[in-house]
Amino acid sequence: MTELTTLGIKAIRDGVAAGDFTAREVAEAFNTAVAEAAALNAFIVTTPDHALAAADAVDAARAKGDALGAMAGVPIGMKDLFATRGVQTTAASHILEGFKPEYESTVSQNLWNAGAGMLGKLNLDQFAMGSSNETSYFGNVISPWRKAGSNAGLTPGGSSGGSAAAVSARIAPAATGTDTGGSIRQPAALTGITGIKPTYGRCSRWGVVAFASSLDQAGPMAQDVTDCAIMLEAMAGFDPKDSTSLDLPVPQWAANLNADLTGKRVGIPREYRMDGMDPQIAALWDQGIAWAKDAGAEVVEISLPHTQYALAAYYIVAPAEASSNLARYDGVRYGLRDLPDPGSGSGTGGSGLQDMYAATRAAGFGDEVKRRILIGTYVLSAGFYDAYYNQAQKVRALIARDFEQAWDHCDVILTPTAPNAAFALGEKLSDPLAMYLNDVFTVPASLAGLPAMSVPAGLDADGLPLGLQVIGKPLDEQGVLNAGLAIEQRAGFVTKPEKWW
Q: Residue 229's closest CA among 49, 485, 435, 489?
């Protein structure tokens, strides 16, 4: 029998439906793989019983001749930003350690309804704030990849680093991710897997721990484009509990996949060719352009003139929303409560409410979270709101307009996903600005709410994966997936990390 842990969503689902193997056999194989990969630190908690129970339900349904769901028999990893009933949900923070929701996020419930099971809750940058998965209270996730000739630990990217590492290491066939400024696409590129951020509003945010509410969007991370299409169909859909959810039917993205780009125009934004760009990234981009032409597309140069301001605008808007969202963590209703020593507070009889807030947040939030809360509070404060936050929102509107005008000339846009391959853990942690630059190619699409995906396209000189990004029109996930499939077929990327864990 084929080693089950090498299979992706479609192969597992179809194999279970055909009786080639049982869903329980699949769940047992992946549970074992997860247990053996503790060195990656990809999971915060594991839930082998959940995976087995879901598998048994699928096997029983098949035995009775019942119709099986689109994800039947597929055990997945769940980013620990999604509320899971009765299972610890922490957003990789100390302040939520031990929190077990009494409810299920809409996205995770949709996946369980489709027949998926849960292998566990995946590690991430704390509250999804980071680009390297080094800000988690539960420790760094380590990429399964290694530079040629080196054993140094590498970043899997962030914030969905646990998701990326798990899929890349083949200890999960797929995983959920969330993308605020590139947190699905960047880690997918750095670990040689595929990930898509759908149009803002396609997937419900209900039950997802909020970072920046106008930007956060859930999406799938998987081995290939087809698997992403299948999983996105299962995740997406209107949710009346989320005021930003789009009341639209979910298209049949997987059934309509088509790698023929004849008649399509692929835009190449001149502003993305930045000074000092890594020659290997530039060469890969040129190769991607050649692949698009080979698939039948017309390649056109376009301009996105406000790209240069995107990163600055994002790092005002996102922290501002984070500052507001994270105000709910105060030690009063749930999560960590830290009380100062009696008599050390500002009140005459000991610690006061403000002292409890301060002590709880000081202990519960990590340095990067505190940094972003401080930035966000500053730009929202009296005297600075107009100078910073309002200006950033105006720039955001201009960036969205750039894309709207670009669609007059092209159907999809092709760019690199990240400015570099995976870097060593600790290499950029002391320099927040260098870390923020990892999102330079992904942030513009997030600010505009557009669908975008990363597809693995090659290796650099050190044998590390590099990705190409496809950006599409609002609601045109199909166009993005089709262009991604065309690149995937021509890139023929099949390299997997050599097992060291």
A: 485
